[in-house]
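Standup notes
- DV: blocked on the single-chain target, sequence here:
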Amino acid sequence: MISRKVFSAKDNGCFIKTPSFYELCSMLKALKKSKGHFLLVLGAPGTGKSANIYQALSLLDLDIYDAFLFIDTDSKPREVFRIFMDTLKEDMGVKSRKEIYKKAAEYDLVLFADPFLDSEYIDCDKVGLGLWTEENGPSTFPFYFRVLYEYIRHYNDLKNVNVVAQTSWVLKFRGVRYDILTDFGFLSKFLVYLLKKLFDVVLISYTEEEMMEIIKSHHSTFNDEKIEKLINKYGNRPRIICEILDKEKK
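- DV (later): unblocked, structure below
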């Protein structure tokens, strides 16, 4: 299937601006004048988190560090954390973790988007953190505990750093990928409520009319009935729907 993954604004092609996009722009713009923010951009896989992030950043005067990560599917949590830190050191040209945070503070924001989470679309021999987590399930928890420990240990350093991360909590059931933060009704709303108490949060979502406009901007040759059926089946996932229509068009 053709991929419509977005790694920069130029990958967007047609882009429809929605209320979610304007909310994201407003929150990103505020990072120019303040530090110590952790912004989570939520949405199920295929919602367009990266498309919205990179489109917004292309319009704003922000100095960005776009983090990336290449690991193996069978990498152990300890190895992933080491590779993560070594990648930052090498790319930033520093030698210690203390220097990583000092260097990161020089940027308006540090971004964790597709080059970090879905890097398998860049190098087919490696994977990003998202697929690694999905494939290994609960055995990946030690990595996240290690990240939490690192956050607590360097809390004072991180007060000078803005972090923006696209986030989904994927559960695969019978071959279908669900996002716990958006696809499970009251439970999802409760979890998002808790996240908003801890972080800045933007949820990327669309009305049915917005979804129709987004899909039609890429596939105007398909009739509304066809697109409506796909929207009813896949919900707020324009990338997934566009990829399906790309395949049918061929």
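- Follow-up: The first helix runs from residue 19 to 29.
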